[in-house]
Structures are given as structure tokens and as C-alpha cells.
Specification:
The complex is a heterotetramer of chains A (1048), B (237), C (84) and D (118). With 84 residues, chain C is mostly helical. Chain C is 83% helix and 0% strand. Classes of the chains: A mainly alpha (1048), B mainly alpha (237), C mainly alpha (84), D mainly alpha (118). At the B-D interface, helix 1, helix 2, helix 3, helix 4 and helix 8 of B face helix 1 and helix 4 of D. Chain D: This is Cation:proton antiporter.
Chain lengths: 1048, 237, 84, 118
Amino acid sequence: MVSTLFIIAGGLGAAFLLGLLREEWRGFAYGVTLAALAFMSWVAGSWLWAFVFDGAVGVDVFTAGHNPPFAINLRMGLPEAVLVLLVNAMGLMVGVYLKGTLMRLGRRAMAVLLVAVLALCGIILTRDIFNLFVFIELTAISTAGLVLLSADARALGAGFKYLVISQIISILLLVGIIFAYHATGTLNIDGMAEASVALMKGGTLAFFLILMALIVELKPFPANGWALDIYESAHPAFSALFSAAFSAAMLFAVDKVLLIGGEPWPKIATGVGIVTFVGSNLLALSQTNDRRLLGYSSVAQVGLVLTVIGQRAVLGEHYLFVVGGILLAHSVAKAGLFWVSGLVVERQLSAWAVLRQNPFLVFAFATFMALLIGLPPFPGFYAKWELVHALVSEGRLALVVFILFGALLEVGYLFRWFGYIIKREASVESAMSKPVAFLPRKLVVIGVGVVSAWGLGYIWGALSDFANVLQALPVLFALSFLALEGLPAKLKNTLAIVGLVAFFAISYENYNQLQLIFGAIILIGGAVILLASYETHGKRIGFYPSAMLMYAGLAMLIVAEDSFSFFVAWEILTVGSYFLILRGKFSEPHALSYIIFSLGGAFAILAGFALAAGGAPRIPLEALAQVPATLAPWVFILLAIGFMTKTAAIGLHIWLPGAHAEAETDVSPMVSGILLKAGLFGLMVLLLNMGKTQFYGVELTYVLLWIGALSALLGNLMAIFQEDAKRLLAYSSIGQMGYAVFGLAMMNHLGWLMALMFVINHYVYKSMLFLSVGGIAKRTGTRDMYRMGGLIALMPLSFIAVLIGIIAVSGVPPLSGFGGRWIFYNAIMTADARLPMILIFLSGPVAFLYLFRLIHTIFLGQLKDEHRRLKEAPFWIVVPQMIYVVFLLGFAVFPGLALRRVDAFLNPYFPNGGLNWEGLTISSDFGYWSPVSIMITIGVIFATLLAWLVYLNHNAQKVKQFNIVFAAERPYRPETTHFAWNFFAPYRKALGFMVQPFVTQFWDGLTGSLHHTAQFTRKLYTGNGQTYAFHLLAFVVVVYLILVGGLV
Amino acid sequence: MIKKFVALLLLAGLGLMFVGLLLGFTPDQVLNTTASYYADHSVEDTGAANIVTAVIVTYRGLDTLGEVTVLFLTATIVSLILTQPRPSGTPIIGVAEKKALSSGELLQTGTRLLVPLVLLFGVYVFVNGHLTPGGGFQGGAILASALLLLLLSDPTKRFNHRLISRVESISGILYVVIGVLGLVLAGGFLDNRILPLGAFGTLFSAGAIPVIYTLIGLKVGAEFSSMMVTLSESRDR
Amino acid sequence: MSTVMFVMSLLLACAMIASAYVALRGQSLSMAVLAAGAVSLFASVMFVLLAAPDVAMTEAAIGSGLTTFLFFFVMGRVKGGKDD
Amino acid sequence: MVYVALITGFLLILMGLYGALTNRNILRMTVAFSIASTGTHLVLVAVGYIPGRTAPILDGAVTAADASLRIIDPVPQALVLTAIVIGLGVTALMLTYAYKLYETKRTLDISKYTDLKW
């Protein structure tokens, strides 16, 4: 093994060598620089290799031939090796990225870069506190030099501010070090730890000063204005180094120094860390400058790591796994994002839309974003899971809440940004600037970042105690579409369909009845919807990986046996569906609110599972039943909230209408017909295991009952006032899910049967309606119903689909919807919740109102002039609709096909009140239902009525298109004169108060106040270096006072 | 006014900590472990009479290497900043500046006489660093002050940057090489025992310490000089 | 001996504080720089008293010597060196 | 005497920081910081001092044998040496920055360099 010292000696030697070179030999100097960085990386890498594969143990490297504490020693162990490799590799990448700048500025700049990298290595390796100080000063000075690599003249001011800060830091540090030395008689960190400096007189304060100096280097909120100025103005490649490597090294220094500490120090680290994490993420919300935003985010992440460092005792043996996961994820992601920012010319976030010119960059951004947030399969995900579990088991709930809140803020601004990239128009100037697509060197560096990101994901998966997400077949299948992006969409579509069906074929044998229903809907149902995707042309980049990711998550969800795999699947399907929803033309804000609600819900689920686990890393889902009674209601509430964000229960529903309505034609049925079922599945799992849970004497299922009923009523009410057909369908989904939740919450056999019936029915008719409406919208170019009319003759197949669909939805005989209702009313009779029951009954007729409009306004009435030449909806969109029609008819006649199995499945859980299946007749305690005879009866009545109508039609008088007399003036808004506009105005008068957007106002108010806080708080950062110095001192003094005051 | 008040308030807070440190402080009566080890062993370990030198060059040699690097870095950055082309559009300053006064005959002659002496003194200080107070940093500073004298006596004088940077680089590289030799030949990086310790108290003793201090002296002198020269010449660029 | 040194150190301390005051409140910048140099110089005498000749030499050469010159070099370039 | 040096050192640090916090002139801030670091050096050396002992240099008066009873702690001195040199480096850098900053805006008032904020 090469001695660790060669990292420092090599870097220094090369830096000094650069001074010998002629100014003109820049290429050679550049070569020397890269070679030195590569050499240093290699040394670090060889150590890492030895630790991992040869089982080497950490070594202490003595200098000067004497033992510590008399001479300085370095330590090389696994964490050191990882960090040193990170720093060096980052340095190498930055060197490659900066080629142009370095060549322009010459060998001096290269020497500064080299020294910066080796100083960081020194910070990581040294075990001597004063040596640490020297390396920190080296780092500070080289930072002040590297800031000037930027072409931005403002960097000069930022560099000076940093120097001011580092002067104060070094004063604090020196005073602290000398008094710590005085108290312990050694400068060796381990020696100090042994002498337990905190117990000695004067030592506590000395240690406090040291710790504060180091923590201030970590840019704690709010004493971090200087760092943000650096991030904003420095060269992005330097910012990458600053964010990734500098922070990593300083964090490690804090970790080392905390060894000395005593009782209060870890708490201080955690306190400072969490304030920084939440505060900086909050401020990031109101940023429009990309690099400053990244700066805030960096600072926040470092705060998170600091929080975790403070919780070392709680994490035990998982400490390195957790802290390393978060830190490495942050480093790679942040470096990657800064590198990408170097390709974008303008600085406002929306200018990043220019990345769309190169799909690879979009993928890179998505990767880094997911890495940063800690979505599966990236390390942060595993780390977050472990962290939350450990903290919850120790009862540090407030900390968990803050961490998850901060993470949600981060989700908010990062996904908002991603939305800009996908949806905003790239401004003219940036479009005309250097084409992003062609900067191979920088792209390679970014590529290395992307590869490391996925590599880290794989490694963390392998290191975790759980199954590696990157080895799950469905995920791999979904990701393989990334490699196939170059193929035409039709080919990929075939592959996707084959994949879904094949996966169903190989797994259905292992499904139980419940899983079978969901599996069939997800996989087979998904395949049917995908038929509609044959309609698209070109490559449809981004669609298949997203869609397949969602299906992968869904497929994994239903077979999940323990809390971890359930949560993995949940997050995967959430992310996949977000990308899918975002594809819609105007879906940017809706996709954002979808992901925020969903991940917020996911965090609730995470917290719920952690609470239920009680210290175990994960629990089988059945073990939810054994949660102690004191915790059970909380677990129930958290999980239920999480699942109901997906079913869009009232109060958590505001994301749904936009997300479903604005999605692409074939995406709407996926996210409505299939995705919503994930929430129901979660609720089923929850209720099966924790069914009867009381919270302060209130039966929680009773609350669910109410939520279901209200969702049903209000969802339907809101649906009737929509003009947009897809929005109407989306609101109706809220209502439909309300029924299902209601059914489940009844906690009896029939209720569940009805809910499962809904699962199937809702998939079929909502997919069908979304497809037909989507097809119509494609042809007419609008989704507003009053702009349509009379399409019955032009689009008969769509008409049939809609007709069948609304019959099924409304639950009138003869279609399966009626079966659902029938079971439903039976079920209600068995329950004793009268009031919500009335609501449910009321919402039935309301559904008629909006469904009626679909037929009436779209297909009947007068044909618009501009629609005279319309054709039937595209073939591939009609095909699945016809499949659904056939299925609905079949299901109406033979509901037993599916329901019998479900019924049997439910028996062990709800033995009483099942149905009797005799031949084709089904009977309950309250009556019987014979689908076939109903079908025949209805058929006869329908035929009779039709004949009667045809007969009457004979006398009808044709009205010409222009047989309408206008007054002389043209109305301001022409649609207001249309008979179908605001069709239910009278009802609005009566019921409007119920559809006031109270919920929307609530959430808007919440986000608004967050933004206002951010706007207000960031005024702290006046940009004046002196003010920043004030902040710093105030920070130190306040922490000191808190400490003295004994608040910690 | 508020600013001053707040500053006073904050410094009062900081002062509170300092008072705490003071109250907790009792001067040592005997040397602590580290210091008494140095007192007892530095002669046999390093052969240096000046224990501070032994600590600086050998025991805490890595610090010193870092320290030299700090100067190297500063000199590099200073010249990097000052040789960078001005951002276009910024006015050239110093135009209105008076032509530097030519210094008097006396000063020039005096300087000519003094500079070799000063240089010699500087060299004396660093080669004797292991015996007497002083060493590479002090000697280097003295070397640089010789240059400063030249600069003061004739502000228009031009210095050979290449020479300065060559001295700096070569001594830096040699320093690192000696460090690595210590790793290979003796007990560890920067171990001074790659050369015989020699007779205690003589010039050629204490192993590599005089060599290292000489290199440091040259390097530090070159770095200080480079900083001053770049700063003094900056206006002309 | 000890009393003499104590008195000396007290005097030095007063000199340092006074110079520092001048350095911070003095009207002209050159005055301030010189006063700061004086603080360093007094400090180096103090170091001799504290039995630290190495430090004394360094402080005298670097702290009060070179630093002061560096200040003057830069002040020569910068017209706004007056209080503004 | 140790206490005199310590208190003076701390006072210098506080005075220096006060100057750095209240003077808007960049050069004056730099001067103030150099005073503060002189104060730091004083503190460091004072901590290592033991009354009645001599400098850690072995010569005729102090021999290797009785060194540990006669000399003061060499470590703080070594640290201060390093700190002084580093302090010079930082000061030089601040001065260069000051010069460069002046070149861009022709003022040394730090409150004028707030293009970056919020």
C-alpha cells in the first residue's frame, strides 16, 4: 500500500513543481495537475480497495518518526478513505471541467486547486487539532483564491467576505486550541478525548470555541450569508468542490472533534444542524437564482448531516451508513447540479428549460434531484429510513418532524425547478447561446456524476440490511427503458405491454385473491391502457421509463410483505407517476402539488412505520396488528393520512383535479384508473391489520367513514360545476374514492366487497371515460364541454363508451355499477353510522347530474360548425374503450367471476354477513340480485322506450344551425350565452357554499405564509460582509448563552 | 450608533467567554506530558539545541510544511489576482499618481552596502535555527527585507520573477523530497534523522534540520519577496 | 526581578492598548497602520519577557515589519485610503 | 505577568474585532484584524509561560539533563510561529483583495459591496 502521506506529498510536490514551469507551458502544467490529482485519487482508491476487499484495518500514519501525541499523526481508515477519495475524485473532475479557465489563468490557478484538494485531504486525515487548524487555514485561503476563477466580478466581494469570516474563525479556533492544550497537555485529538477535556476546568469553554469555529465553517443558518454569496458568484465547478468536498471534509472534522466532547456537544450539533436544515430549505423556496438556490440547498444538506452527527449515539452501528449515505448523496448530487449549472447561461431557474435540448441532461438533473432528496434507489433513501427509525425508537419525534418538514421543503423547490425545466419556454437568449448539447468534456464530467449516483445507490442497497432496490426485477425493467430511449415509441410500447403481461404471468400464481385483483388491474389493466399509447408517434422520450417505473412500484407494492419494501414501492410509484403527470401540456403546477402531497404523505407513512417498528429496522405488515395500544392510534393516523393523500380524500384532494385533467390522453386513465388504487390498497392493508383502533375513545374507522362520505359528496358536487370534461371526471374520482373509503371504513364483509367492486369498476369506467373524453378532446381541440355538442353521429364508438361508462358509474341497472350499489346499500344497512350514510345516499343523485352532462353536452344538441368534419377518435384510443365495453357487459352479467373470489378472500377476516352465490343469483340478508334477469328486464324496457322515441322522432321539427337570434351586441364572453355553459347554475346557487375552495385556500395560505417567511428572513442577508461578521458573532454568543442557560 | 452598540453587546458576550477562560486558567507549574517529553527527548531525538526548532521542524513538521504552503498559496494567489487582466471597463487607477520620488543618493549607497549584510544575516539566522533563536521564517523574512530595501531605494527597479519563483519552487520541492526521504530512510515523513545527528551544539548537527530550515528560509524569503514585488509592481500592469 | 518584569509587562500592556486604540480610532490610515505595527512591536518585546525569543523575532520581522510594508504598498495604490 | 499578557491579549482581540465590526473601510478592517491576531498570539504565548523559567533553548545555562525543570513549554511557541506566518498570509490576501475591490468600484467602503445578497 502506498503511504497515505503521498497524497499530501504528491499534491504539494506537484504544486511546487508548477512554479518551475514556464508560464507558456500551460498544457504541460495542466497535464501535471491532472496527473497529480489522478495519482492522489489512486492512492485514496487503493486504500479504499484494501479496506473493502482485502479486509485491511485502519492505520495510523506517524510523521517525523515519533509517536503521537509528540508528533503529528494521520489516520487512514474506511471513512477517511471514502472521503479522501471523494475529495480527490471531485478535485480531478473539477480539474477536467475547469480546463478552459485553468488554461486561461495558467499554472498558478492550477497550483491553488491542487493545494485546496490536498488541504481538504489533510483536514480529513489529521489527528492533531492544530494541524487541523493549519489545513483549515490552507483551505480558507485557497477558497479565497479559487473563488476568483469566476468570470463574475462580484466574486471578488464574496471572497473578501469569506476572508473576514475566516479571520474571526481562526481567532476563535486558536484561542480554543491553546486552552484545550493547556487543559489536557496534548494537541492530539484522541489524546484530548482520553483526557476528556470537558471535565477539566477551562476546558469546556475551550472546546466550545473549537467546536463553534468548526461549525461556523459549516455555514450554519443564519450565520452563512457569506457562503451563499460565494455559491452565487463563484465558478460553478468551484462551487461543486466547495459544496461537495469542503463540506464533507469539514463535517468529518466536526465528527472527529466531537470525540473529545461530553454531554452537551452532540445536542448542539443537532440543534444547529436542524435549524440550518429547516431554515435554509425555507429560504431556498423564495430563490430565483439557480446557484444561490443550490447554495441554500447545500447549506441545508450540511445541516442535515450535522444533525445526524449529533445523533451518533442513537444510530449506533448504523451511524456510518446513515451519515455516509446522506453526505455522499449530497456531495455527488450537489456537484452534479453545479456542473450542470455551468452549461446554463442565464441564472434564473426557468432558464434551465434549455436543458431540454439534451435529454441526457434532463436525466442527469432528475438523477441528482432524486439523489439529493433521497428517493429510492439512492443512498439517502436507505439512510433516511434508518435515521427515522432510529430516532423514532428513541422518542425523538420532534426531530423527526423537523427533518421531514425540511425534506418536504426541499422536495418543493427541487421539483418545482424540475417542472420549470420540463415545461417552461427556454428564453430566446439562452436558446441562441452556445448549444448545450455540445460540450463533451463537461458532459463527461456530468456523466461521471450520474454514474457515481447510480453506483452509490447500488452500493448502499447492497450494504443495507434490506433487499437492494436496484436488483428488483420490475425496477430494472423500468430502468432498462432508459437505455432504449432511442427506439421508436411504438416498439417500446410493445415491449412495455409484453413486459406487463409477462410479469403478470410469472407472478399471478403467487398472488392471493386480493393481490390478484390489484395485480390484474395494474398489470393487465395497465397493458390495456397502453394500447392507447400506440396512437403516439416519434420516440416519446421520457414516457416509458416513467410509466414503467410507476407500474414497477405498483407491482412491488401489492406483493410487499414488510414495511420497508412497501415503502420502497410506494416512493417508486409516486416518483414514476410524477414524471408521467408532468408530461401533460399545462400540468406543471399540478404535478408539483401532486408530488408535494404524495411525498408529504410518504413521509407520514415513513413516520408511521417507524413508530410501529419500535426500534426494529422493519416489520412485517402483519405486525401492524401487534402495535402496542398506546402507539396504535398514532400509527393508524399517520398511515391513513399517507394513504389518503393518494386516494385524494377531501382535504388532501387539491392536487388531483389538475393532475388528472392536465395529463396526457393515455396518462389520465393510468393515473386515475390505476394509480389511485395504490392508496386503497394501502388502506386495505392498514385496516386489515389495525382495523379497530381507538383514539381518545373515538373509533378511527368512524372518522374514516366520515371522510369517505364527505369526499363522496363534495367530490361529486364539485364535479357537477366543471366545464372541462376531464376535470369533471377527475373530481368524480374524488367522489368515487370516497365511496371506496367509506366502504372499507365500514369494516364489514359487504363494505369491503363493495370497495373491491369499486376498485374494479372504477378502473374500468374511469379509464374508459378518460380515454373517450381524451379522444374527443384530441379531435375537437378543447376539453370544454360547451364547445362540443352533437358529436353522437360523428363519434358513435366514443358515444357508446361514454354511455356505457356513465351507466356503470351512476350505478343504475343493468351494468356492474348497479351491482356495486346494490352491495353498497346492503352494506350500509348493516352498518350503524346513519349520518354519513345519508351523505352517501345524497351523493348518488349528484353523480347523475354531472354524468348526464357528459352525454348531453358532448354528444347531443347541435353540432358546432367547426366540428362538422370531425372523425371518430383515433383507432388506438378507441380499441381499449371497446375492450372495456365488452368487459363491463360481461362483468354485469357474471359479476361472480371476480366477486366470488373476493368474497372468499374476505371470509377469514369478516366471517359474517357474506353473500350467497347460487347460480347466477346473489342474495344477502336484505334481498337478492340476479344480474341476468336484471339485464333482460332492462333490455326489454330500453328497447321499448327506444322504439317509442323513434316513433316520436318521426314528428320532430329540425332546427337550423343559425336559427338563433342575437341581439345587436356581441356578449363580452360568448360562452356565457351557450345553453350548456354553467349548466347547473341553479344548483350552484343552492349548493355553491359547499364547493367553496376552502381547502385550496387553506393550502394556498400555508404555502403563502411559508414564502412570506422566507422572503422576510432572507433580508437578513444584506450582502454586507460586516453584517455577516455580526451574524457570526451573534451566532456564537447565542449558542453560548443557550449553553450557559442550560437550555440544552 | 446602533451598530456600535450591537457590536459592543456581542463583544461583551465574547468577552464573557474570555473571562470564563481566564477564571478557569491556572498557569502550569510543571511541564505537561507533551512538553516534558520534548524537554527530555528532543536532544536525543533530533539533536537540536533550540527545542522550539525541534518541535517546528521535526515533531510538528507537517504543520510547518502546511505553513510554508500557506505562504506559497498566498504568494500564488496574490500574483494570480494582480496579474489577471482588469475587468474591461474599470478605470485604470494610479494614473494620477505622482511619479515615485527617486530616493536620495545616500539611501541608495547605504542600501548597496546594507543589502549583502542583511542577506548574510538572514542566512545566519536560518542555518543556526537549531542552535539559537530564529530559523527559517525569521531568516526568510530578513532575506525579504533586503529585497524590500532595494525596492525602497529604487521603486522602479525590476526584479527577476523567474528567479524568485524558481528559488521558491526548487526549495519547496526539495522540502517535500526530504520529507519523503524521511519516510523511506528513517522513521517517517519529515524525520530529520536521514542525516547523522552530529555533535550536539554544532552547526552541522541535528540531522536534516538545518537543511530543512535553509530550504524554508529560502522559500519563505522568496515567497515574501514575490508578494511584495507583485504588490509593488501591480500599478504598472 | 519578578517585580521589574511585572511592571515592564504592565507598561507594555498599556502601550499596546494605547497603540491599538490609536490604530482603531486614529484619523489617518497610515497612522493606523503604523500604530498596528507598534502593537506588534510591543508584543514582540512582551514575547521576550515571556521567554519566547523565537516568537519575538518572528513577530518583529513579520508582524511589525513585513505586514506594515505590505499595508503601505497597497495604500500607495489605493486613493480612497482615507476614511470614507 | 502571565495574567497581564493574557488580559492584554484578550483585550486586543476584542478591540480588534470591535474595529473590524464598526469600521467600514476595508483597509481599516484589515488593520483591526491584524491587531486582533496579535492579541491571539499574545494569548497563546502567555498560556505556555511558566513563571521563573527560561526559553526552551539548550545552551550553557540550561542543559539537556535539567531541561524539563528549567524551560517553559515550547509547544505554544511553535504554534504561534505558525499562526504568525499564516496571519501574514491572510493579511496579504485581504490587502490584495482590497486593492482589487478598489479597482472595481473605486471605494473601500465594505457596505458598497453588496451586489450579492438575499
